[in-house]
Amino acid sequence: MRKTVIAGNWKMNMTPKAAGEFIRALAPEVKGKDKCDIVLCVPFVDIATAAEAAKGTNIKIGAQNVHFEEKGAFTGEISAQMLLEAGAEYVIVGHSERRQYFGETDATVNLRTKAALAAGLKVILCLGEVKEQRLSGITDEVVAMQTKLDLAGITEEQLKNVIIAYEPVWAIGTGLTATPEQADETCGVIRKTIAAIYSEKAADGIVIQYGGSMNDGNAAELLAKANVDGGLIGGASLKTDKFTAIVDAANK
Ligand code: PEP
Predict the structure, then answer these.
(1) Choosing from 97, 104, 129, 167, which is the catalytic residue?
(2) CA of 119 to the centre of ligand 1 (A)
(3) What are phi and psi of 165, to 5 degrees?
(4) Which residues are paired to 54 by β-bridges?
(5) Which terminus in the chain has less CB density within 10 A, N or C?
(6) Is residue 1 very low, low, confident or very high in pLDDT (cuts 50, 70, 90)?
(7) Is 232 in the pocket of ligand 1 (CB under 6 A)?
(8) For residue range 177-230, what is the model confidence (pLDDT) as tens digits?
(9) Is 67 a catalytic residue?
(10) Mean of pLDDT values over 15-29
(11) Ligand 1 pocket, 168 CB below 6 A?
(12) Which atom, in ligand 1's list, is nearest to the CA of 237?
């Protein structure tokens, strides 16, 4: 009953012109492949062009971050309303690169998630353990804690607009992928945590993606796992043929 969601995270790649060209090339390749939702999370300045190119297609557009205040003296930040008006439907919050390089904490991830949901955006909430935590055997505790902190104060109704992306930090951009079993198990821990905070119904309904070097070669076996409801894809979302192959794997 959960719909698979395949989302690309372009990170700091592609100019507005390149974004438009990419989406016009991708659209015919993924047309009618509706067993999954398809989202491209693009740089802020690409959103308007990307949304225009995606009009009338099954590709939805997202941003990669959002500020938690509605407006004001926050130089360089972008509000949820700005994203919506530019044409974004989704926003990534809490990506590990924001946590690692830009001081993002569970507290600010929580604030951003609340602001995005209040404005009407759908949130792709990223969380996951670092290598030392996996090696120390505390992955389950780490992802359960992140899930609780990042979703604090968010209602079960609001949760319907949240996708969780389980992204082991050691697997992002490294070419190392969690095994399908590891991905399934940890997505399962997140689902159980959702059941504990909210309800079994909420846990059954929430989409939990895997992210971390997912590509055209490994997507099918990762997506085949019961607790893996899609993928958040970095590197492989920058090539139309690779991204299409992942969409194809989700449509089998
Ligand atoms: C990501 O940026 O969320 C990601 C998973 O990147 P990659 O697929 O390149 O590991």
Answers:
(1) 167
(2) 26
(3) -105, 110
(4) none
(5) N
(6) confident
(7) yes
(8) 999 999 999 999 999 999 999 999 999 999 999 999 999 999 999 999 999 999
(9) no
(10) 98
(11) no
(12) 8
Q: How many CA atoms lie within 13 A of 190 on its CB side?
A: 33
Report how far ligand 1's centroid is from the alpha carbon of 244 (Å): 16
Q: Are 158 and 122 in contact (CB under 8 A)?
A: no
| Total domains, the chain | 1
List the domain range (segments joined by +) for residue 168.
4-250
In 3D, which of 119, 128, 81 has the Cα closest to residue 232?
Answer: 128
Locate the ligand 1 atom nearest the alpha carbon of residue 165 and give its number.
3
CB of 222 closer than 6 angstroms to any ligand 1 atom: no
Question: What CATH number is associated with residue 83?
Answer: 3.20.20.70
User: E strands along the chain, which residues?
Assistant: 4-9, 36-41, 59-63, 90-93, 122-127, 162-166, 207-211, 230-233
**Identity of residue 86:** A
**Percent of the chain topping pLDDT 70:** 100
What digits encode the pLDDT tens for the residues 38-86? 999 999 999 999 999 999 999 999 999 999 999 999 999 999 999 999 9
Q: How far is the CA of 9 from the centre of ligand 1 (A)?
A: 7
Which residue puts its alpha carbon closest to atom 1 of ligand 1? 234
Q: Residue with the nearest Cα to atom 6 of ligand 1?
A: 234
The reported pTM is 0.98
Other Cβ atoms closer than 10 A to 149: 14
